[in-house]
Amino acid sequence: MKNKKISKTNAMRMLDKQKCAYKVHEYEWSEDHLDAMSVLEKMSEDAGAIYKTIVAVGDKTGVVVGVIPAQNELDLKAFAKVSGNKRIEMLPLKDLEATTGYIRGGCSPIGMKKAFPTYLSHHILDEKSVLVSGGKRGTQIELSPEDLMKVARAKVEKITQEKDE
């Protein structure tokens, strides 16, 4: 019996084209548990930090992408400011696939239909490796923060709400 071949997603093809090293992690998913915290629970302890992709719309720039740690929340005011907007709101879920080419639970910051302005949480600078959606449900791509910054043409900014300590 042959090993199961992983079907390449746009995100993987883009990483291959840029000659970036990455590792694919697959996991069982369900329609009820597509959030980043559910993914976090399914991944092994030795995998990199899990980051979620958030797509929003700014009043001046249009679509912008944020990539933040799974356990953090996006700071909409900070995100608006760094992206050159006065106001920012989440992209309606019904528009996600038409806008990015990806569906909920499989939205990768790499390989979207268009190259949208992308901002990575400053936490990424503390990571050895990070996991982001591989472009389909049940698939995560592990890569270096530097490669993610390069391939997503992303800026690193403080875009998360800090938890009270």
Please describe the topology of this protein:
Layout: H1 10-17, E1 23-26, H2 36-42, E2 49-58, E3 62-69, E4 73-74, H3 76-82, E5 88-90, H4 96-100, E6 118-121, E7 130-133, E8 139-143, H5 145-151, E9 154-157, E10 160-161
EC number: 4.2.-.-
Enzyme class: lyase
Organism: Trichococcus ilyis
Could you name the key traits of this structure?
165 residues; aminoacyl-tRNA deacylase activity; single chain; alpha/beta; two-stranded antiparallel sheet; YbaK protein
Radius of gyration: 15 Å
Number of helices: 5
Structural class based on helices, strands and sheet pairing: alpha/beta
What is the global morphology? Answer: globular
| Mean residue pLDDT | 87
The CATH topology label is YbaK protein
Q: Profile the largest sheet.
A: 8 strands, mixed
- Tell me what the CATH architecture is: Alpha-Beta Complex
Ends apart, CA distance between termini: 52 Å
Helical content class = 10-25%
SSE order, as H and E?
A: HEHEEEHEHEEEHEE
Number of domains: 1
User: How large is the share of residues in beta strands?
Assistant: 25-35%
Low-confidence stretches: none
Can you identify the CATH superfamily? Answer: YbaK/aminoacyl-tRNA synthetase-associated domain
Number of E strands: 10
Any idea of the CATH class?
A: Alpha Beta
